[in-house]
Design a protein that fits this description.
- The chain is mostly helical.
- Helix content is 77%, strand content 0%.
- Helix 4 packs antiparallel against helix 7.
- It starts with 12 loop residues before the first helix and ends with a helix.
């Protein structure tokens, strides 16, 4: 919190924290948005091998980070909760599907379609909130979900099939977020627990590839080995930046920043990878962007109204506390 200077002005600590949080948020989503440039560098490793390396090296990197930070108190609490362990196992399974499909789609020329998955993810998350958590939607949210559904139909016509890559990415990440909400532990700790679940199966898969002479690791030179090992850093660093942003900026700001990643991915797919964008795909994406614009407008309006209501309630409470109480009637007043 900012303190007051000798001239009565408020200090800049709070503003500095907010600016730092914004930079952390931009950095995290920018790294997630530019990661399609990274996965092709790992060829000729298959998507399955890249995924296994990502799990193994993420566990190693996060374990070392927690060792340095000495943050191990959560392990005992987690081990004593079978429910949380079960939920984290589900989260690890779902994010494995998400990671694996995303790596495959980028390395097989579907960057634009994968970006669509993260564009429609907020709409899918809202739909899951209604179906699973029985949440009630505001009219603007219903409209956004409806427009999003229409967009999927238009894109299905454009692709000649349902955009299954986008849908699986969107639904898997939405389910992942839903499960993580139930667990409610820190991002770094959660990643450590999830990659601990993934570690042995991933390591076993790499050993299996080695016995079949199908392992790219070690056969393409030291630079390629370093790139595969750095998958742990590529996974953990954006998450650490996101965690730093989440405690410094409002949730509404993070909600706006989340569109940076798919925007970067989309631009890379069209401009850098030269993926086709016929008119019907532009029409489908335009509907998605319209739905997201409506969703963002509604979220900002609701947040502004909530802040105004809190401010009014606080002001009214302060006014009641500062009001001068009326004196009790005296004997002379009664006689008069």
């Amino acid at each position: 919190m900012g303190g007051r200077g000798t001239d009565g002005t408020v200090g800049t600590t709070e503003g500095g924290e907010s600016r730092a949080g914004l930079l952390y948020g931009i950095a995290s989503y920018a790294m997630w948005g530019l990661v399609p440039l990274y996965w092709p560098l790992l060829k000729p490793a298959s998507a399955g091998e890249i995924l296994a390396h990502r799990m193994v090296w993420s566990f190693v990197f996060v374990g070392l980070a927690l060792l340095v930070l000495r943050r191990w108190g959560w392990v005992r609490e987690l081990a004593a909760s079978p429910r949380k362990l079960g939920l984290l196992t589900i989260a690890a399974t779902v994010i494995t599907v998400n990671w694996g499909l995303y790596i495959w789609s980028v390395n097989n020329g579907h960057v634009v379609e994968s970006s669509l998955g993260y564009f429609i993810n907020p709409l899918v998350t809202i739909a899951l909130g209604v179906l699973v958590l029985k949440e009630r939607l505001r009219p603007a949210q219903w409209a956004a979900v409806g427009i999003g559904f229409a967009a999927v139909l238009v894109l299905a016509v454009g692709y000649g099939r349902p955009p299954w890559i986008s849908l699986v990415l969107a639904f898997s990440f939405a389910v992942y977020g839903l499960v993580k909400k139930q667990v409610n532990i820190g991002g770094l700790e959660s990643l450590a627990a999830e990659t601990a679940v993934q570690f042995l199966p991933a390591l076993g898969y790499l050993v299996l590839l080695g016995t079949r002479s199908e392992l790219a690791f070690g056969s393409e030179g030291p630079a390629h080995m370093a790139l595969l090992a750095s998958t742990g850093i590529v996974t953990a660093v954006p998450l650490i930046c996101f965690g730093a942003a989440a405690i410094r900026v409002p949730l509404s700001t993070l909600g706006l920043l989340q569109y940076l990643a798919p925007t970067f991915q989309f631009l890379l797919g069209v401009v850098y990878f030269h993926e086709a964008m016929p008119p019907e795909r532009w029409a489908g994406f335009s509907l998605v962007w319209l739905a997201l614009t409506l969703l963002t407008w509604d979220a900002l309006r609701t947040a502004r109204r909530s802040r105004a209501a809190v401010a009014r309630a606080t002001e009214e409470a302060a006014t009641r506390l500062t009001e001068t109480p009326r004196p009790l009637p005296t004997t002379d007043d009664v006689r008069a």
